Automatic annotation (TrEMBL):
Domain of life assignment: Eukaryota
Name assigned to this protein: Coronin
Family (UniProt): Belongs to the WD repeat coronin family.
Molecular function, one GO term: actin filament binding
Pfam families to which the protein is assigned, alphabetical: ANAPC4_WD40, DUF1899, WD40, WD40_4
Gene3D superfamilies recorded: YVTN repeat-like/Quinoprotein amine dehydrogenase
GO term, biological process aspect, one: actin filament organization
The entry's keywords: Actin-binding, Coiled coil, Repeat, WD repeat
Basic and acidic residues composition bias: residue spans: 368-395
Species of the source: Desmophyllum pertusum
Family annotation (PROSITE patterns): WD_REPEATS_1, WD_REPEATS_2, WD_REPEATS_REGION
Residue stretches making up the DUF1899 domain: 3-67
Region feature Disordered, mapped onto this chain: 364-429
Amino acid sequence: MAKFVRSSKFRHVFGTAAKKDQCYEGFSVSGNAVESPYCAVNPKFLAIILKSSGGGAFLVLRHDEVGRMDPEHGRVGGHKQDVLDVAWNPFDDNMIASCSEDATVKIWHIPDQGLDKEILTTPLISLEGQHQKKVQQILWHPVAANVLLSASWDPVIVIWNLETAEAVVEIDCHPDIIFSVSWNANGSLIATTCKDKKIRIIDARKGNVIHEADGHEGAKPQRVAFCSEFGYLFSAGFSKMSTRQYAIWNVETLEQLALEEIDQSNAVLFIHYDPDTKMIYLAGKGDSIIRYYELAPESPHCHWLTNYSSNVPQRGVCYMPKRGCNVKINEVAKCFKLVAKGYCEPVSFTVPRKSELFQEDLFPPTQSDEHSLTADEWFDGKDADPKKISLRPEGDAATGKAAKKPKKGLTALGKKAPKKELAAKAEEDESELIEMVKQLKLQVEAQEKRIKALEEKLES
């Protein structure tokens, strides 16, 4: 029986690690046991949570600060206990949020030049009083400005309005520790996984549970991500026998559409979903590989593409927003792989193409750094889709093809010339042509007379 390979423009995507002189080293990564990627990246900066004593801190590096770090390099050190998660504001590349074991969430402003040797201890905003236990995850709203979600071991989820520094929504529907939280595309819903092995879809403003279902059967942490373009939830967890597996769920009903086993490793898998390419990247803490899959609307809904392998297990992984990727080399994703020994390695995922033109099919319009709603608009119940921008480089041709010559009868603006103008032009051209023919006839007659005179002269 013939076997067919599924057609996909991402079937040959491959990962390439940066050379050593383009990596970051010389720092101590946090050793806290909480399930966190310990890093975050945007087009300007890379943030890494540090191992520290006497208070929590994280490092902020510009992308050009590669190589071994200066021991006296500046850092953000305003928390009293270990920092557990950091997240860059999607609408302001200089703003970052952090959460900590000290039950607080803080917002920081990083200057364009970075921190140099400055130790930043004064935040823009300090959010306190709502959480009674450590805060392990923070997420910025995907479309509304100055809206931040924090999840704690209370277990409570709080949604903050940063313009007033107030907790506007408090979601208290989980009986045990919350493992992960994910926004949908327009920020109206959140999906969560919990230690009680349930997956929930929750109205983000009202806090009520819309759907609830049994998740993965294993006791280890499971994680979830909204894949709104297909109406899916993608989860990664464990079976009863501690086999790692992923599952796909229908958002409308929480019906399980697919369940596949991955391997026998005990590392928790972190999910990164790319809404532009519809690809899923899975990286486990302690793994030395990153798997990538492509989602599809039809069964089996998820197709394995390939793996990126290295010799060093990762401590955490963070992904560059698509607007920070290099489209000139067809870089469809870029991650920063953090290892425990204090080394961070950028990895580029590219699709080989012979053409050097901008690849429209690989890079559709992506999420902009401009918000669609204000905080007040969102809390008042308004929804909006994310704003999109083109990734086409400046100066690149509009279509990537040679410009076509204007058709006859078109002006420089591309509009048809009026019929009267065309008729007048035709009459003028005809008159010029008749006059030219008359002149040519006269020239021929003159030449014939001259030739005849020369012939008569020669004969005599």
